[in-house]
Amino acid sequence: MSQNEEVLSYPLPYDTALSAPTEWERLRAKCPVATIELPSGDHAKILTRHEHVKGLLSDPRFARPAAGDNAARVTREGSGGAVANGDMSMTIPDRGEGHQQWRRLVGKYFTAKRMAALRPGMTAIAERLIDDMVRSGAPADLKAGVGFPLPVYVICDMLGVPAEDRDRFSRWSDMMLSTSRYTREEAGQGMGEFVQYMSGHVAAKRATPTDDLIGMLIREGEEAGQGLTDAQLLSTAMGLLVAGHETTANMIGKMVAMLLVDRTRWERLLAEPSLVRTAVEESLRFDTNLGFGLRRYLTDDIEIEGQTLPTGTTVVCSMPAANRDESVFAGADDMDLGRSPNPHLTFGAGPHSCLGQALARTELQVVLETLLRKLPTLELAVSEQELQRVEGLLVGGLRQVPVRW
C-alpha cells in the first residue's frame, strides 16, 4: 500500500438508518477498488461497482475466508462470533465440486415450486401474527410482532424443530453473527449449546426420518449412496437456521419502513397490489443497510480497473453500493416499485449465491400482501430520523419498526 493511499474506516458512516453512505457515489466514480480498515484494524479492499461485485462473486475460484487463510479479520481477538471470524468449523466444502454437490442436494428443497406449496401456510402465520399485533394495540413494533417470528416459524417448520425454541435460536444466531455484541467466550459458549441442541436433533432424524429438510437430506443421501455425514448435516442445519431467519426477519422490517417513510409508496401498492412482486425486488435493491458485505479471499492474483490485487487479499463486496450503480439502474436513488428488470445483487451471484432466495422472496411477498390487505391504514409511528440501525452484527437491520394503523 502506498503512503498516500486513502484508507476508509469501515463500516462507512450514514445519515439516517435508511439512507445510503454519501461515500458510495464517490467510490464508484473515482475509486472503485478502495482500501478499508475493518473493526479489527486489519486492511481489506472494497468493491462498489455492479460489474466488479458481480464479477468477483461469480468467480468460482473465490469463496469466503476459511480459518486457515490468514485473511483480514472482521473483529479484534476476544470478540465476535463464529461467522464473523471465519473460524466456525464448517464441514461443508466451501469451494469446488464438493460445494456444488452440497448445493445440488440442499437446493432440491428450495425450489420455487416447493416455496409456492408453502405459501398458504406462510399466509396463515402472517395473518395470525398481524391479528395478535392488532389485539395488543398501537403503536406496535412490527419487527418484533411480525418480522422476527414469521421466518423463525417457517424455518423451524422446514427443519422440523419446535418453534417454541425460537428465542434460543435467535440468541444463538446473534452470537454466530456478532461482530462486537458478544465476547469470544460468550459466543463460544452459545455455539456449544447450539451444537449440542442440533446434534441431538440430527440424531433423532437419523433414527426416525421425517419429511422435513433434514429428513429429506438423510433419505436422499442414503438413496444416492453419497449422503452427508452427521457433521455436515449439523453444519447445514445450523447454517440454514441462522441464514433462514436472521436476514429475512430484518428485511421484513426494513422493507415496511422503506415503503412507509414515503407513504405515497404504500398508497401506490394499495392502488396496484399486482406490484407486490416488483416492490419486493425493489426493496431488496434499495436497502442500504444490508450488513457487512460479502468477504472473498483471493487465492489467485486478479486485476480490477488496472489494479492488481495479489493472492491473499481480502475483498469486501458491497452489494448495496453496487445496487445503486447508475450504469445498471436508471434513477438508482429513486425507489421505483415497478422496476423491471431488476438485476440487484442482494442475494449475491454465481456459485455462492443465496440458496434460500426463493424462500426469502416468498416470505417477503406474503408479509407485504397480508399487511396491505389487513392493515391498509398502516403508517410509521416515528420519523425516519428516529429509526435506529442494529449494531454489532454482520447483518443489517433496524432495532425497531414502530407502527400504528
TrEMBL record:
InterPro entries: Cyt_P450, Cyt_P450_B, Cyt_P450_CS, Cyt_P450_sf. It comes from the Bacteria. Signal peptide: none annotated. The keyword Ion transport does not apply. Its cofactor is heme. Residues 67-96 are annotated as: Disordered. Keywords: Heme, Iron, Metal-binding, Monooxygenase, Oxidoreductase. Belongs to the cytochrome P450 family. This is Cytochrome P450. It comes from Nonomuraea insulae.
